[in-house]
Amino acid sequence: MAKDKAIFTCTECGGTSPRWLGKCPSCGAWNTLVESVVEGGNGGAGKNRMSASSYAGLAQAQAVTPLAAIEAQDVARTASGIEELDRVLGGGVVEGGVVLIGGDPGIGKSTLLLQAMDALHRTGMPTLYVTGEESGAQVALRSRRLGLDHSQVNVLAEIQLEKILATVEATQPAVVVIDSIQTVYSDQLTSAPGSVAQVRECAAHLTRAAKSTGISMILVGHVTKEGALAGPRVLEHMVDTVLYFEGDTHSSFRLVRAIKNRFGAVNEIGVFAMTERGLKGVTNPSAIFLSQHSEPVPGSCVLVTLEGTRPMLVEIQALVDSSGPAPRRLSVGLDRDRLAMLLAVLHRHAGVACADQDVFVNAVGGVRISEPAADLAVMLSITSSLRGKALPKGFIAFGEVGLAGEVRPAPRGQERLKEAAKLGFSVAVVPKANAPKKPIEGLEIHAVERVEEAMNIVRGLG
């Protein structure tokens, strides 16, 4: 009897190698190659034959058609009943769409999805909740804790792919939740549940079922210690929408961020508060990211950031303190390398030296800010802490800062300013290109082109 041939598969990217290596040749990750047996007993031929037969239905020849001749219309959406979740999804659940949602254990993925399934079912849509990590009794207990009395959501405790697909075909739900994709396995493969081959194959079958039947699929994915989705990264390319849960498990607030969405805007976020009755949407998220100071304090500057289509106010805090021979540069919620660059620009073009000082920068509320429009607020907060003098009450700032000391405009500046004025802020320092043509009631706007101009204006205001 021929011996089964073994290959080594990377748990990060799904790449294969005929022998074990300490470093994956495809993605460069260390100690990620895991041994698996090739199906079919004839090298890779058995696996290739199995895959070809599995996707034979997709290989039918299609006529070549010009774009102008293809009839297209906007996709129909169904509101989930949870406004913040609908915002992240782009307006609601799309028929035949596949959503992948990931997050740390215990952050609230199952809670949010169970609430969404119950809300959808109450609107008349048949739903199916497939749980592979818990029993049906555990899911029922959670629903009672969440106050979902007399919930009619159908629950299936199953991890075998073929049985799940058979149940979906028999019950014909409109929305299916798979919690989680790492627990599902197929009889066609000999590898264990959660392996790269199993996760990839099961996700492919579920995606094909969603596209062919019009059923919306929501897959729950585990995350690694680094915060990335566990299993092969190909999952992110196979699905239509990828959502990430963010936030500290010790805090009551959660952020759901869309990093990919074929049916809506990316980098859109939904803000939730964890309560005894589950996750509740936060209508005014700016209140979370602003500290409640009775009087202005040194080292604090409010930034108007843009998350998808939503402007939000976030407080940037800085602490500059005397240091020893090796000054520290630490940032929480902001890029540390960009902080070092801003300190160099501050020294060269504004004459503010922090070379012998420890500099700590924090974005309040655990939010992560990646856009460069935060540069000006970071520099002003650092200067405020170094001088020991607070910025004026009701002060906001935003703008990107270049290495030459210029202040560049931020996208959608008018919306940022209107959001700040709506929340009662009265003074703003913004790039000259973002200055509105018509004055905004209650908001005094100072337009600047260079960093030194911004520093002089702040000194004059103080």
UniProtKB/TrEMBL annotation:
<keyword id="KW-0067">ATP-binding</keyword>
<feature type="domain" description="RecA family profile 1">
    <location>
        <begin position="74"/>
        <end position="223"/>
    </location>
</feature>
<keyword id="KW-0227">DNA damage</keyword>
<dbReference type="InterPro" id="IPR020588">
    <property type="entry name" value="RecA_ATP-bd"/>
</dbReference>
<keyword id="KW-0862">Zinc</keyword>
<dbReference type="GO" id="GO:0000725">
    <property type="term" value="P:recombinational repair"/>
</dbReference>
<feature type="region of interest" description="Lon-protease-like">
    <location>
        <begin position="358"/>
        <end position="462"/>
    </location>
</feature>
<keyword id="KW-0479">Metal-binding</keyword>
<dbReference type="InterPro" id="IPR004504">
    <property type="entry name" value="DNA_repair_RadA"/>
</dbReference>
<keyword id="KW-0378">Hydrolase</keyword>
<dbReference type="GO" id="GO:0003684">
    <property type="term" value="F:damaged DNA binding"/>
</dbReference>
<dbReference type="GO" id="GO:0008270">
    <property type="term" value="F:zinc ion binding"/>
</dbReference>
<feature type="short sequence motif" description="RadA KNRFG motif">
    <location>
        <begin position="260"/>
        <end position="264"/>
    </location>
</feature>
<protein>
    <recommendedName>
        <fullName>DNA repair protein RadA</fullName>
    </recommendedName>
</protein>
<keyword id="KW-0346">Stress response</keyword>
<comment type="function">
    <text>Plays a role in repairing double-strand DNA breaks, probably involving stabilizing or processing branched DNA or blocked replication forks.</text>
</comment>
<dbReference type="GO" id="GO:0005829">
    <property type="term" value="C:cytosol"/>
</dbReference>
<feature type="binding site">
    <location>
        <begin position="103"/>
        <end position="110"/>
    </location>
    <ligand>
        <name>ATP</name>
    </ligand>
</feature>
<dbReference type="GO" id="GO:0140664">
    <property type="term" value="F:ATP-dependent DNA damage sensor activity"/>
</dbReference>
<keyword id="KW-0547">Nucleotide-binding</keyword>
<dbReference type="InterPro" id="IPR041166">
    <property type="entry name" value="Rubredoxin_2"/>
</dbReference>
<comment type="function">
    <text>Can catalyze the hydrolysis of ATP in the presence of single-stranded DNA, the ATP-dependent uptake of single-stranded DNA by duplex DNA, and the ATP-dependent hybridization of homologous single-stranded DNAs. It interacts with LexA causing its activation and leading to its autocatalytic cleavage.</text>
</comment>
<comment type="similarity">
    <text>Belongs to the RecA family. RadA subfamily.</text>
</comment>
<dbReference type="GO" id="GO:0005524">
    <property type="term" value="F:ATP binding"/>
</dbReference>
<dbReference type="InterPro" id="IPR014721">
    <property type="entry name" value="Ribsml_uS5_D2-typ_fold_subgr"/>
</dbReference>
<dbReference type="Pfam" id="PF18073">
    <property type="entry name" value="Zn_ribbon_LapB"/>
</dbReference>
<dbReference type="Pfam" id="PF13481">
    <property type="entry name" value="AAA_25"/>
</dbReference>
<dbReference type="GO" id="GO:0016787">
    <property type="term" value="F:hydrolase activity"/>
</dbReference>
<dbReference type="InterPro" id="IPR020568">
    <property type="entry name" value="Ribosomal_Su5_D2-typ_SF"/>
</dbReference>
<keyword id="KW-0238">DNA-binding</keyword>
<keyword id="KW-0234">DNA repair</keyword>
<keyword id="KW-0863">Zinc-finger</keyword>
<dbReference type="InterPro" id="IPR027417">
    <property type="entry name" value="P-loop_NTPase"/>
</dbReference>
<dbReference type="InterPro" id="IPR003593">
    <property type="entry name" value="AAA+_ATPase"/>
</dbReference>
